[in-house]
Design goal:
Layout (H helix, E strand, L loop, with lengths): L7 H4 L9 H11 L9 H24 L2 H9 L1 H13 L1 E3 L1 H18 L7 H27 L4 H28 L10 H27 L2 H8 L1 H14 L6 H22 L6 E3 L8 H13 L5
Antiparallel strand pairs: 1-2
Amino acid sequence: MKTCQGDPLQRSLLAHKQPAKVPIVEILRWLGYIQASQLPLSELLKFVLFANFSIVGMNVSLMWNSVGFYQIAKLSMIPVSCFLEVVLDKVRYSRDTKLSIAVVLLGVAVCTVTDVSVNAKGFIAAVVAVWSTSLQQYYVHFLQQRYSLGSFNLLGHTAPAQAVSLLLVGPFLDYWLTEKRVDTYAYSFTSVLFIILSCSIAVGTNLSQFICIGRFTAVSFQVLGHMKTILVLTLGFIFFGKEGLNLQVIVGMIIAVAGMIWYGNAKASSKPGGKERRSLSMNGNKAQKHDGLSKSTEVDDKV
C-alpha cells in the first residue's frame, strides 16, 4: 500500500516541524533555562546538516515507499546507531543488551510491517533518512558530552540555525518534490491551528529527545521510542475499536514490551548504557568537564 500524496499541507517537509522553535527558545532563555554556553560553528553546521537531512529524508521516504518498507527502514536505525557507537566510541555491548534489542525489533516488526515493496528512489531516500537520523541522534549525545551542554542549551544553539535553514530551503525543495507551492494552499483557521499545535508538539519532542539521549544514548532513545508505536496501536484500539488490532499485532506488542523490559534490566545490571566503553578520544578532558556538565544538567532537572 502506497502512502497517499495528500494536499500540500500534508506533504510539506517543513511547515509543521521547525518554525515555532525560535520564539520558544527565546522564552526558555528569558526564563533562565538556557545558560550562556559555546558551540563551535563547525559542529553546529554538521549537526544542522544531519538534522535537516533527517527531516527531509524521513518525509520523502514515507512519500515514496510503502508503509511496510518505511517501518523496516525505521527499525534499521537501531543497528545503525549501534554500529556508530561501536565504530566511533569503541563501545562493547553486553550479550543481554544485544538480545533484548533483537527482541524489541522483532516485536515491532511483527506489529507494524505488512506489505513490503520498494523502488530505487524510495530505497535511496530510506538510506539517507536512516543514516542522517542516526548521525543526528549520535551527535546529540556527543555534543552534550564534549562541550558540557545541557539539553536546553543544545536546543538553544541548534534550533534557530535549523529553523532558518529549513525556512530558506524547505519551500523550494517541497516544490521540486511535489510540484506544489506551500504559499498557494488555502489556509483556514483549522489548518493554521493544527500547524501551531504540530509545531508545539515538535518542540517538546525535540527537547525530550535531547534530554533522553544526553543522559543515556541514541540506542536507548531508539529502543524506548518504539514504545510510541505500541501506544499508537493501543490508543487506536481504544478510540476506533478493533479495526487494525488482530492477533498478530497483539503478539507483536507483547514481544516488543518484553524486549523493552529486558533491555532496561540489561542496562541496570551492567555498566552505564548496558555496555562496556573503552576510552574515548575526549576522555582526557572528562574530569575537567565533569563539574561543568553537572551544572548544565541541573537545568534539565527542572523539566
